[in-house]
Amino acid sequence: MKQAEIIDQLNTEHQQLMDAITGLPAEAMLEPGVNGEWSIKDTLAHICAWEAELVKLLWQARAGKKPTTIHFAQDGDIDATNLTWFNERKDRQLELVLEDLQAVRKQTLRRVAEFNDRELSDPQAFKWLRGEPLWEWIASDSFNHGPEHITQIKAWREARGL
Question: Which end of the chain has fewer CB atoms < 10 Å from its terminal CB, N or C?
Fold first, then answer.
């Protein structure tokens, strides 16, 4: 996938996420039940946490370093990571989570723009990629991750008539 396509996907998915929460009162965004006990706020914080890992990965890759993100952790227990991040962020104010969401996407876009099409699509461009192109790593923590949660938010809203 080329840089322009990745940027387009990032922008499209982000707009879909914003559309999914538009018009919701703050108190509704704090109600649990969107994804298990998670509220919309918790879900957005989860999205931010994974995308922040992506920003770190891209920064380290651009600096010529092997990333030290959760993707390369020894245990690789995603459920445990998600639970840890939930517990760390569950008391974060909604306004701050919304700011985080905007800021992390801005950083992702900036980092993606630092890579050329070959670096993004060549599975051999970075040895630590385990034979996958960089764009697939970008997609997994951003525009391929968000739709799962957008669907949950929409279903939750529909079930509540919001």
Answer: C
d(CA 11, CA 120): 17
| Nearest residue to 113 via CA among 13, 14, 18, 2 | 2
Q: What are phi and psi of 38, to 5 degrees?
A: -75, 140
Query: Under CATH, domain 3-7+37-160 is a member of which superfamily?
Result: dinb family like domain (1.20.120.450)
Helix (H) / strand (E) element for 97: namely helix 94-112
Residue 40's identity, in one-letter code, is I
Handedness of CA 89, 31, 93, 109 (dihedral sign): positive
Q: Which segments of the chain have a pLDDT < 50? A: none
What the block records as the tokens of 24 is: 């919701």
**Residue written as tokens 């760390």?**
88
Query: CB of 57 within 8 A of CB of 137?
Result: yes
Domain boundaries, the chain: 3-7+37-160
Alpha-carbon dihedral angle through residues 83, 87, 91, 97, given to the nearest 10 degrees = -40
Taking only the tens place, the pLDDT of each residue in 143-159 is 999 999 999 999 999 99
